[in-house]
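Work Package 4 report. The design task specified in the project plan requires that, given a folded chain encoded as C-alpha cells, an amino acid be chosen for each position. We show below one input record used in the internal validation round.
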C-alpha cells in the first residue's frame, strides 16, 4: 500500500471539500482555484499532443480557454445576481460569441504559417485542446454555480462525490472480480464488473445524499428516480471520459499527463472523468429536475 499516495489523495480531497462545503460558491477564491485547475489541465493536454508529435498553440489555446471559462463564471453570477432563476437565463449570446471568436481566430492563425499543412495541424490541435478541457470544464462552472451564490457549491460537491466514488468502485471491484474486459485496447485493466461496481458505489452516494439533503441538489429538487438514473448515468459517462484520456495517452505513448501529483499523475488525470460527467449533470439538471 502506497501511504504517500493515500496521504496526498486525502489532502487534495480535503482541500476540495473545504472549497465546496465551507466557502460560498460565488467567492472569488473559488474562481481562482477553478481557473488554476483548468489552466494546468489544458497545458497538460497540449503537452500530451507535443509528446505525440502533434503541434498546437499552447499559450493561445490556454488563454482562449481560460477567457471562456472566466466569461462563463461572470455570465452566470451576473445573471443570478439580477434575480433570474437558473432555468430562466436569457440567451447567452455574448458568451458564445466569445467562443466563436476564439475558434475563428485559431483557424485564422493558419495564415501565419509558411506551410498550410503545419498551420492546419496546429489549428486542429489547438481547437481540440480548447474543446476538450476549457469548454467541457465550463459546464462544471455552471454546476458549481447552480445554487445560491452565498451558499457552498453543493451540486458540484455531489458531482465529485459521485464521479470519484464510481471511479473507486470500478477500481476495487474491477481489480478483485474483473474478468470481462471493457476496452482491452485502450485500457486493459477496466472491466464490465468494474463498471458495475462503479454503479453500486455511485448508487450508495446517491441514496445517502437523498437521505441527508432532504431531496435537494443545489437549487433543484432531487428524487428517488433521479438517484437511480444518475447512479447509472454518471459511472457510464465518467468511465467514457476516463477512456477518452486513456486513448489520448496511449496514442502518444505517455503514462500520465503530468507527474506533479505523486501517484496520481497530473491534474488532467484527476479531472478526466469530471470533464464528461459535468455536462451530463448540467443537462440533467436543466431538463429533468425541478427548480
Amino acid at each position: 500500500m502506497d501511504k504517500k499516495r493515500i496521504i496526498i489523495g486525502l489532502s487534495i480531497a480535503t482541500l476540495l471539500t473545504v472549497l465546496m462545503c465551507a466557502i460560498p460558491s460565488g467567492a472569488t477564491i473559488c474562481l481562482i482555484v477553478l481557473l488554476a485547475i483548468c489552466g494546468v489541465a489544458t497545458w497538460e493536454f497540449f503537452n500530451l499532443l507535443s509528446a505525440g508529435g502533434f503541434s498546437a498553440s499552447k499559450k493561445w489555446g490556454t488563454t482562449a480557454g481560460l477567457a471562456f471559462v472566466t466569461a462563463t463564471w461572470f455570465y452566470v453570477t451576473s445573471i443570478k445576481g439580477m434575480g433570474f432563476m437558473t432555468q430562466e437565463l436569457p440567451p447567452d449570446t455574448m458568451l458564445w460569441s466569445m467562443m466563436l471568436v476564439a475558434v475563428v481566430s485559431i483557424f485564422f492563425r493558419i495564415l501565419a504559417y509558411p506551410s498550410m499543412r503545419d498551420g492546419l495541424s496546429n489549428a486542429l490541435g489547438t481547437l481540440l485542446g480548447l474543446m476538450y478541457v476549457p469548454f467541457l470544464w465550463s459546464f462544471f462552472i455552471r454546476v458549481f454555480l447552480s445554487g445560491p451564490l452565498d451558499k457552498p457549491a453543493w451540486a458540484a460537491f455531489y458531482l465529485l462525490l459521485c464521479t470519484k466514488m464510481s471511479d473507486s468502485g470500478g477500481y476495487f471491484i474491477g481489480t478483485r472480480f474483473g474478468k470481462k474486459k471493457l476496452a482491452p485496447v485502450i485500457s486493459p485493466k477496466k472491466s464490465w464488473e468494474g463498471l458495475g461496481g462503479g454503479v453500486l458505489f455511485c448508487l450508495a452516494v446517491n441514496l445517502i445524499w437523498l437521505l441527508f439533503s432532504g431531496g435537494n441538489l443545489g437549487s433543484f429538487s432531487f428524487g428517488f428516480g433521479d438517484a437511480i438514473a444518475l447512479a447509472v448515468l454518471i459511472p457510464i459517462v465518467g468511465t467514457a471520459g476516463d477512456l477518452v484520456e486513456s486513448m489520448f495517452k496511449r496514442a502518444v505513448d505517455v503514462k500520465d499527463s503530468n507527474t506533479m501529483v505523486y501517484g496520481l499523475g497530473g491534474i488532467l488525470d484527476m479531472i478526466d472523468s469530471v470533464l464528461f460527467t459535468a455536462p451530463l449533470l448540467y443537462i440533467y439538471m436543466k431538463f429533468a429536475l425541478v427548480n
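Residues 3-287 form one domain. Validation will be extended to a larger panel in the next phase.
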